[in-house]
Design a protein that fits this description.
The structure is a single chain. This protein is an alpha+beta fold and about 80 residues long. The protein is built from 3 helices and 3 strands; from the N terminus they run H-E-E-E-H-H. It is globular. The protein binds zinc ion (ZN). The site of zinc ion has 10 residues, from helix 3. This is Ferredoxin. It comes from Paractinoplanes tereljensis.
Length: about 80
Protein backbone atom coordinates (compact mmCIF):
# COMPACT_ATOMS: atom_id res chain seq x y z
CA UNK A 1 0.00 0.00 0.00
CA UNK A 2 1.42 3.38 -0.93
CA UNK A 3 1.22 6.36 1.37
CA UNK A 4 -1.38 8.02 -0.84
CA UNK A 5 -3.50 4.90 -0.86
CA UNK A 6 -3.20 4.62 2.88
CA UNK A 7 -4.31 8.21 3.41
CA UNK A 8 -7.20 7.72 1.06
CA UNK A 9 -8.09 4.56 2.94
CA UNK A 10 -8.01 6.29 6.31
CA UNK A 11 -9.76 9.44 5.19
CA UNK A 12 -12.30 7.75 2.99
CA UNK A 13 -13.57 5.42 5.68
CA UNK A 14 -13.04 2.34 3.54
CA UNK A 15 -12.90 -1.06 5.18
CA UNK A 16 -11.28 -4.06 3.60
CA UNK A 17 -13.64 -6.94 2.97
CA UNK A 18 -12.55 -10.26 1.51
CA UNK A 19 -14.86 -12.45 -0.53
CA UNK A 20 -15.31 -15.70 1.38
CA UNK A 21 -15.43 -17.71 -1.82
CA UNK A 22 -12.68 -16.28 -4.00
CA UNK A 23 -10.56 -14.31 -1.49
CA UNK A 24 -10.72 -11.16 -3.57
CA UNK A 25 -9.92 -8.25 -1.28
CA UNK A 26 -11.85 -5.07 -1.97
CA UNK A 27 -12.42 -1.84 -0.11
CA UNK A 28 -15.93 -1.02 0.96
CA UNK A 29 -17.51 2.08 2.34
CA UNK A 30 -21.05 2.48 3.53
CA UNK A 31 -22.20 6.06 3.32
CA UNK A 32 -25.85 5.27 4.04
CA UNK A 33 -27.91 2.12 4.69
CA UNK A 34 -28.76 1.95 0.97
CA UNK A 35 -25.46 3.14 -0.43
CA UNK A 36 -22.45 0.86 -0.55
CA UNK A 37 -19.33 1.81 -2.47
CA UNK A 38 -17.01 -1.00 -3.48
CA UNK A 39 -13.53 -0.34 -4.82
CA UNK A 40 -12.07 -3.15 -6.85
CA UNK A 41 -8.35 -3.43 -7.21
CA UNK A 42 -6.76 -5.01 -10.28
CA UNK A 43 -5.58 -7.78 -8.02
CA UNK A 44 -9.09 -8.44 -6.71
CA UNK A 45 -10.50 -8.56 -10.24
CA UNK A 46 -7.95 -11.20 -11.13
CA UNK A 47 -8.61 -13.16 -7.95
CA UNK A 48 -12.38 -13.23 -8.23
CA UNK A 49 -13.78 -16.39 -9.80
CA UNK A 50 -16.89 -14.61 -11.03
CA UNK A 51 -16.30 -12.62 -14.20
CA UNK A 52 -17.34 -9.01 -13.75
CA UNK A 53 -19.45 -7.47 -16.47
CA UNK A 54 -21.85 -4.62 -17.01
CA UNK A 55 -24.71 -6.92 -16.07
CA UNK A 56 -22.95 -8.31 -13.04
CA UNK A 57 -20.86 -5.43 -11.73
CA UNK A 58 -19.88 -7.23 -8.57
CA UNK A 59 -19.19 -10.69 -7.29
CA UNK A 60 -22.36 -12.06 -5.68
CA UNK A 61 -20.35 -13.98 -3.09
CA UNK A 62 -18.57 -10.79 -2.21
CA UNK A 63 -21.94 -9.09 -1.90
CA UNK A 64 -22.88 -11.73 0.69
CA UNK A 65 -19.57 -11.22 2.49
CA UNK A 66 -20.24 -7.49 2.64
CA UNK A 67 -23.73 -8.11 4.03
CA UNK A 68 -22.17 -10.37 6.67
CA UNK A 69 -19.68 -7.68 7.60
CA UNK A 70 -22.52 -5.18 8.01
CA UNK A 71 -24.50 -7.60 10.15
CA UNK A 72 -21.45 -8.31 12.32
CA UNK A 73 -20.91 -4.61 12.80
CA UNK A 74 -17.50 -4.72 11.09
CA UNK A 75 -18.82 -2.33 8.50
CA UNK A 76 -20.80 0.63 9.71
CA UNK A 77 -22.46 3.56 8.02
CA UNK A 78 -20.01 6.45 7.81
ZN1 LIG B 1 -15.72 -13.25 -5.53
Amino acid sequence: MTLTERQEYLEGGYEKVACTRCDALVRVRKSSPQQTSVQWTTQAEKTCVNPLSALVPTCLDLRASIDDAIRDGRLGVI
